[in-house]
């Protein structure tokens, strides 16, 4: 397994949010986390990414324990986290957003731009525009492009299609689809249509616990199965 | 009138050089750094000592004064401020204020409490519209403009500067790319401290050097930073020169109210545009 999260507890102060949560992600696998708002999905991603430290349990990535490591160290180890809310650097241009990611990934800017444009060809039009002026879909694609520059082995993506138009969802979907097999992903997603089409494995999360795990995607084809979790 | 404008621009230039470091420190680290005033004072005292050592070579003494800020700033950042990241802003105020108080006493112990005068290092005047203005003050104004241009270039053209700008907006997003953003913020802290030392050095020949010179100017710098916007580089420039002019004009009309007017302007700005910390 590429990622093993075992019996992890996480608390914000006295409020425990995750209770003995365990998940596993294989190399190149697309794993979706579904559940209601406040179920603890984002907390789990932040914990794997190093923004929160578990109070109990272990997180092992590529054979190395990473629980409690700072976020930058986790990222350098091959995990990239794409935040919720489409958080691009709004005061910088699209090119400068890519430049920072290229610097972190230690690749040339021209090569980095080429790779982002390969993911989303229309980005060439916006390279010198402030990233703050991009639409939600364009921001998400920039974030995915930025994260993929580091050639991570695991991508953590929080609500990639949230608040996007149908067209933008299709564009994000295409990027996730094209990346199949090249990078493992843990994706928090509420759009069950996207989950059903892309997932290799699904964890349903409820009140900070994994309540169900689905490896057979035929099992989630029935709308009532996952909708009951949301 | 010309002399009032020149005085206002000089004070504005000094305020800018000191305040930009304070503003950047707050913007990057969310730390209200009272120790900034200590580094400002140290810059002036090291200049005083080095002028004696170098036989009056102002440029060389100033370079040493700025360089001396590096280890001092590093020590303050490493042993005090780094321990306060993410803590309540109150701890930072108490911690850095303690550093300032210790520093002021150390200054008195080393150099004494008696104010030390310094003469104008250039000692020449230029006639502008019938008014003789000290060339030194014009140099100070030009230096402030050059520093602004240099910082603009640094933050807009270099990848290090862009990482700091990105980190100011969203530190966690920068960290998620694998960048140790705190190292870049430490660099900014040292840069800001060097500018504080330079401010002390440049202002020393205009005023006198004394152990409390930093605490005095710090309050004015806070006013500049609050008016200009925390972490805003352009806002700090505009606020510095605007408040410098406020001081100069008010001082011309009623001397004792010159500094009070700066805080009155600050209060009005805060009422109209409250800050979010």
Describe, in plain words, how this protein is organized in 3D:
The complex is a heterodimer of chains A (230) and B (277). Chain A has eight helices and ten strands. By secondary structure, chain A is an alpha/beta fold. The longest helix of chain A is centred in the middle third of the chain and has 14 residues. Chain B starts with a helix and ends in a 5-residue tail after the last helix. Chain B has a two-stranded antiparallel ribbon. Chain B has one domain: ABC transporter involved in vitamin B12 uptake, BtuC, CATH 1.10.3470. Classes of the chains: A alpha/beta (230), B mainly alpha (277). Chains A and B meet through helix 2, strand 6 and helix 3 of A and helix 6 and helix 7 of B.
Blueprint (SSEs and pairs):
The complex is a heterodimer of chains A (230) and B (277).
Chain A: E1 3-12, E2 15-25, E3 30-34, H1 41-49, E4 56-61, E5 64-65, H2 71-76, E6 79-82, H3 94-105, H4 109-119, H5 136-149, E7 154-158, H6 166-178, E8 184-188, H7 192-198, E9 201-206, E10 209-214, H8 223-227
Parallel strand pairs in A: 3-8, 3-9, 6-7, 7-8
Antiparallel strand pairs in A: 1-2, 1-4, 4-5, 9-10
Helix pairs in contact in A: 3-4, 3-5, 4-5, 5-6
Chain B: H1 2-29, H2 36-53, H3 58-79, H4 89-111, E1 116-117, E2 125-128, E3 131-134, H5 135-157, H6 159-169, H7 171-175, H8 181-203, E4 208-209, H9 213-228, H10 233-253, H11 258-272
Antiparallel strand pairs in B: 1-4, 2-3
Helix pairs in contact in B: 1-5, 1-8, 1-9, 1-10, 2-3, 2-4, 2-8, 2-9, 3-8, 5-6, 6-8, 9-10, 9-11, 10-11
Distinctive features:
heterodimer; A: 230 residues; alpha/beta; Rossmann fold; 6-stranded mixed β-sheet; 4-stranded antiparallel β-sheet; 8 helices; 26% strand; B: 277 residues; mainly alpha; ABC transporter involved in vitamin B12 uptake, BtuC; two-stranded antiparallel sheet; two-stranded antiparallel ribbon; 4% strand
């Amino acid at each position: 397994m590429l990622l093993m999260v075992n019996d992890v507890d996480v608390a914000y102060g006295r409020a425990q949010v995750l209770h003995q949560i365990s998940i596993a992600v294989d190399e190149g696998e697309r794993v979706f986390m579904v559940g209601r708002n406040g179920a603890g999905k984002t907390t789990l991603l932040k914990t794997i990414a190093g923004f929160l430290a578990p109070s109990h349990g272990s997180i092992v990535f590529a054979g190395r324990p990473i629980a409690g490591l700072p976020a930058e160290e986790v990222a350098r180890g091959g995990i990239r986290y794409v935040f919720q809310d489409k958080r691009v650097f709004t005061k910088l241009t699209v090119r400068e957003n890519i430049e920072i990611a290229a610097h972190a990934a230690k690749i040339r800017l021209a090569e980095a731009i080429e790779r982002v444009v390969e993911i989303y060809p229309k980005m060439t039009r916006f390279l010198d525009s402030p990233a703050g002026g991009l639409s939600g879909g364009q921001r998400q694609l920039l974030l995915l492009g930025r994260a993929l520059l580091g050639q991570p082995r695991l991508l953590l993506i929080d609500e990639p299609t949230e608040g996007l138009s149908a067209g933008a969802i299709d564009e994000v979907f295409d990027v996730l689809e094209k990346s199949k097999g090249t990078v493992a992903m843990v994706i928090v997603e509420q759009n069950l249509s996207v989950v059903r089409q892309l997932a290799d494995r699904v964890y349903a999360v409820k009140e900070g616990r994994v309540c169900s795990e689905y490896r057979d995607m035929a099992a989630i084809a029935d709308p009532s199965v996952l909708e009951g979790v949301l | 009138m010309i002399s009032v404008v020149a005085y206002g621009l000089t004070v504005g230039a000094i305020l800018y050089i000191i305040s930009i470091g304070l503003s950047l420190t707050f913007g990057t680290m969310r730390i209200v750094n009272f120790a900034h005033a200590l580094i400002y004072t140290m810059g002036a005292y090291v200049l005083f000592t080095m002028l004696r050592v170098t036989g009056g070579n102002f440029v060389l003494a100033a370079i040493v004064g700025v360089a001396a800020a590096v280890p001092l700033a590093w020590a303050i950042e490493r042993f005090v401020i780094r321990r306060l990241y993410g803590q309540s802003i109150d701890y930072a105020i108490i911690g850095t204020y303690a550093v300032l108080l210790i520093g002021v006493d150390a200054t008195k112990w080393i150099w004494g409490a008696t104010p030390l005068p310094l003469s104008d290092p250039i000692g020449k005047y230029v006639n502008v519209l019938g008014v003789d203005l000290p060339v030194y003050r014009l140099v100070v104004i030009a230096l402030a403009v050059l520093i602004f241009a240099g910082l603009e270039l640094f933050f807009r053209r270099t990848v290090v500067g862009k990482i700091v700008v990105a980190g100011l907006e969203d530190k966690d997003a920068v960290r998620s790319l694998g960048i140790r953003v705190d190292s870049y913020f430490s660099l900014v802290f040292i840069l800001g401290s060097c500018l504080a030392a330079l401010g002390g050095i440049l202002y020393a020949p205009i005023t006198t050097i004394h152990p409390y010179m930093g605490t005095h100017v710090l309050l004015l710098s806070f006013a500049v930073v609050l008016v200009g916007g925390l972490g805003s580089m352009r806002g700090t420039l505009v606020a510095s020169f605007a408040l410098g002019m406020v001081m100069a004009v008010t001082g011309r009309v009623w001397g004792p109210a010159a500094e009070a007017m700066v805080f009155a302007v600050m209060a009005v700005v805060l009422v109209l545009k409250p800050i979010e910390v």
